[in-house]
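Methods: example folding runs. The two proteins below were folded one after another, and each record is reproduced exactly as written to the output file, sequence line first and structure-token line second.
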Amino acid sequence: MTLLATLDPADADLTACLGRVMAAVLKPGDTVALQGPVGAGKTHFARAFIRARQGDLAEDVPSPTFTLVQTYVDPLGTEIWHADLYRLTHPDELAELGLDDAMRDSIVLIEWPDHGGPLPDPLTIALDPHADFPELRRITLSGSEARWGFATRLPAIARLIHRAGWVEARLIPLAGDASSRRYFRLLDGDRSAVLMDAAPGTTDGYVAMTQWLRHRDFHAPEILAADQHEGLLLLEDLGDDLVARVLAETPALAPRIYDRMTDLLVDLHRHAPPDFVLRLDGPELARQVTLFADHYPAAVGAPGLGAGIAPAIEALHAELCEGIAPVLGLRDFHAENLIWRGDAPLGVLDFQDAVAVHPAYDLVSGLQDARRDVAPEIEAAQIARYVAATGLDDPRFRAAYALLGAQRNLRIIGIFTRLAQRDGKRRYLAFMPRVWAAIQRDLAHPALAPLAQAMQGIPEPSAEVIEGILA
């Protein structure tokens, strides 16, 4: 058993806060061993955990000292067993209580676990009185790293939430993205916030870009609290009206929504990009597109093909894009990362990888969306709208748009392949045919003939080819 994390000192509120954080991440089959003397806060922790799992349906959670076991059900149908083994006379009684079976398919919280004998790979939470302050306690988390390594993050999350004044909040997991970041919604009465859980030390770019955007009246989420060393940010909750969701529910709004997206870019591009962002120039675009040649051809039975793609992109960028001042590119500017707020400005999410890049880059990102079809007439109208608003040379802009579209979409194909083969994230492969179709449209531009030649012989991601990637 390995010491995973420590929370010291912890008052009653912070102890309960840790219980609520843990309730958001544990799953059926997880067992928690709660150790500590009488009055250390074991039942207090368990009560916070169970009530957080139950949400609006929360019940009273009495101590199971006399009943030995109490069971609860959360809204998703998960059974939660709360046991107190202090009065257990023999470990064999575990089976009589049903705990052996429960530990296979329920979440089990056990106080005084040592009275029941060895448990199967539990997360052990020890609550011990603080040496100097009796009202405080020292909490340690221990367990096997292979199973419980994720728990090392939980005390830091609890500390941030406690410090920010959200001690009563429940945490609800939100859908993640292609990165390693996790998101949780915090609910506390009629207020809500979003917690970003990123790798330690990786939020500086997000914080800097948030400040830059908000200073210029773009609606990035306000940062409510932060622990940048741990990679934790508590953010304003902009709601659930992702542009992607609004487009799916109200397709007739598409022309208006895409007008607003283009106008946001026009406004954004009136500001010189900050000097702390990466310059996404020809050499860097070429370097990044090697993700395609490094992963996709070999995965589809064509190893070695595509070596000429990166040099072609670098040469074409010098020909088609040089001479145009770079603008700020949010890089993942698309319907999944924008919030529809009616007549209010669009909310902007996921911009920590912002770059200085040719003006066409984010327009491509929004209009050649890997996750959804954008009507050809809308794409054409938005290109024309952007050119008219900025006064850029129309033919030259369209050639650059095609080049950046091809580069971006080839890189996406490479990323999707790597995510499937290295990380087991296979759901992105379903987007490949749409991305490939966009590449073919981009390559049809006469200026991209050298890139089209470099693509010769590489198979398209047909159903059979995608099945091969999965194999």
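Second run, written to the same file directly after the first:
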Amino acid sequence: MPQRPALFPTLLAGASLLLVVHGLGRFIYTPLLPWLVQDGLLDIQQGATAATWNYLGYLIGALLAVRWHRVAQIRRSLPWALAVNVLSTLAQTQAESADALYALRLLNGISNGLVFVQAPSLILEWLARHRRISSSGLVYLGVCVGLILSSLLVSLSDGLLQGADRWWPAALLSIPLAWWGWRQLARLDMPEDEPAAVSAVEPSGRLLDRASTPLFLSYAGAGLGYILPMTFLPMVAHLQIAPGSFLIGNSWLVVALATLPSPWLWNRLGVLLGDAPALRLSYVTQLVGVLAILLLPGASGILICGVLVGGTFLGTVLLTQRLARTLHPHQGPRLSAALIALYSLTQLAGPWLTGVWLDMGGTLHSAFWLGAGALLWGLLWMLLVPRQR
């Protein structure tokens, strides 16, 4: 088939863009945070506030993506979102105050939310034209590679850079990756009027009903439950583990390595067990991971949490998206955008609640009980989601 040679570069381009906005733009902040605190650029509370501004931006970006969902709109807004993402990461190299970093993390989050929704959506529409939808999940491998790369960039530059200069490796690498990725997607043979057929079916069904409402409520728990370890795990490692331990500088690398097989693994479990049972298993796995850091203080709890949460959260995302489409098969794009917006809203609550808890005299370690409670909430609501092919 003539379109087959273009499949790999297109998926690689999409993965590259997710690597830029999610790995280098968003999640590199997690391994950077302990060093930014150590360098005196931020304190722990300011670090939580900066994360909150980033997640607020991600929510705004996801909501904008709900509005700009047609191919013509994506072609116009996606390159601008990429430019804002790269430039805001670059500007962070000059952010010497917490307030400046708050503003830049907000902009970075808005552009991340737009790209994270729009790039996979554009590729999915293109794959649908060529009847290759089953390959769409490979785009999210860019997130996995981005987590590993972000950890390596922070580790390798430690001792060479300090303070705001620690952002330079991510900023410089983002520029060529974003440029190449967009060049590939700009060439896709997508008629701009094709999505009109998709939008025409949106009014035909309700977004929430007795089948889908428990799934939405469950997914809210997933967003809040995973974001605490994905934001503060390296910080807790610095606070709890003796100096010189491997996990002091590499807890994020453990998380990143655990993500690599997760898209394939959880997709396979969904096929073997069914999406709903596999999704329940993913909640149990993440809950065990968060409880490990609470009940097994020290290196063992950090390691178990990193492996179980890192190896599961992308699976929860993929399985939820797929299960939602079986519950509302004619509302795929609308449903996907709504779920991402909800997920980003509950992610926003995590760092904010952590900041409130710290203000009340609580510890960062004990704040992880919020994540455990959220995952238990998600698991209980998942029990009410019907099995449906």
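Comment on the second run: The chain has 16 helices and no strands.
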